């Protein structure tokens, strides 16, 4: 009689353990919308640094629009306090540094990314560079503005385009730069 009562209880216990294990072992949520690739094969991983900080919190990921003028998020939003230095992700030439619709914007055409070249855009940013200036990876191109952010908290919107096509800016960063955890050395036998 006792064995018959144990079967439903044991079955439930096994199901709880399986479900809990699956949740704990599941990968972390993506930095991009469902169905949107993390890396685009047409984008070389030429980035050498994050635009702000060493690994900023992503407030909103890339959500490519279904059509050219459809809804979506054509970049990623990175948490950053006003006055934070904004750095060029990769080497290039400043193609624009000024204000658009009241927001400070800096755009950089990336060197060695074929034709038409890839272009990164950072906003809202007070520019520290001028149009035509060459920049190196990690070079400060401006600081985060106190106004003009479309986030609930101050952020930098980081975008990437090739001609009229919006791409995932995270595609510029090599996998080792995207990794969140600490590096671990394994023993050599």
TrEMBL record:
SUPFAM superfamilies given in the database record: Duplicated hybrid motif (SSF51261)
Give the UniProt keywords, A-Z: Signal
Q: Where does the record place the M23ase beta-sheet core domain? A: 72-169
Identify the species of origin.
Answer: Streptomyces swartbergensis
- Record carries keyword Signal: yes
What residue intervals traverse the membrane? none
Q: Which PANTHER family match?
A: L-ALA--D-GLU ENDOPEPTIDASE (PTHR21666:SF289), PEPTIDASE-RELATED (PTHR21666)
Gene3D superfamilies, per the entry: Glucose Permease (Domain IIA)
Q: Mind telling me which InterPro entries this protein's record contains?
A: Cell_wall_metabolism_enzyme (IPR050570), Dup_hybrid_motif (IPR011055), M23ase_b-sheet_dom (IPR016047)
What is the protein name stated in its UniProt record?
Answer: Peptidase M23
Q: Which CDD domains does the record associate with it?
A: M23_peptidase
One MF annotation (Gene Ontology) recorded for this entry:
metalloendopeptidase activity
Superkingdom of the organism of origin:
Bacteria
Instruction: Reply yes or no: does the keyword Metal-binding apply.
Output: no
- The residue range of the signal peptide is 1-33
């Amino acid at each position: 009689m006792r064995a018959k009562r144990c079967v439903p209880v044991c079955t439930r216990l096994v199901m709880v353990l399986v479900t809990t294990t699956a949740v704990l072992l599941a990968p972390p949520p993506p930095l991009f919308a469902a169905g949107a690739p993390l890396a685009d094969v047409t984008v070389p991983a030429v980035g050498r640094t994050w635009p702000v900080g060493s690994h900023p919190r992503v407030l909103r990921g890339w959500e490519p629009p279904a059509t050219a003028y459809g809804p979506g998020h054509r970049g990623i939003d990175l948490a950053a306090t006003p006055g934070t230095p904004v750095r060029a992700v990769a080497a290039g030439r400043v193609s624009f540094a000024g204000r658009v619709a009241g927001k400070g914007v800096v755009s950089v055409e990336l060197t060695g990314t074929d034709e038409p070249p890839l272009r990164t855009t950072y906003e809202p940013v007070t520019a520290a560079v001028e149009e035509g200036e060459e920049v190196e990876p990690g070079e400060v191109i401006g600081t985060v503005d106190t106004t003009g952010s479309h986030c609930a908290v101050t952020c930098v919107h980081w975008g990437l385009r090739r001609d009229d096509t919006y791409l995932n800016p995270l595609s510029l960063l090599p996998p080792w730069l995207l990794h969140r955890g600490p590096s671990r050395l394994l023993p050599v036998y």
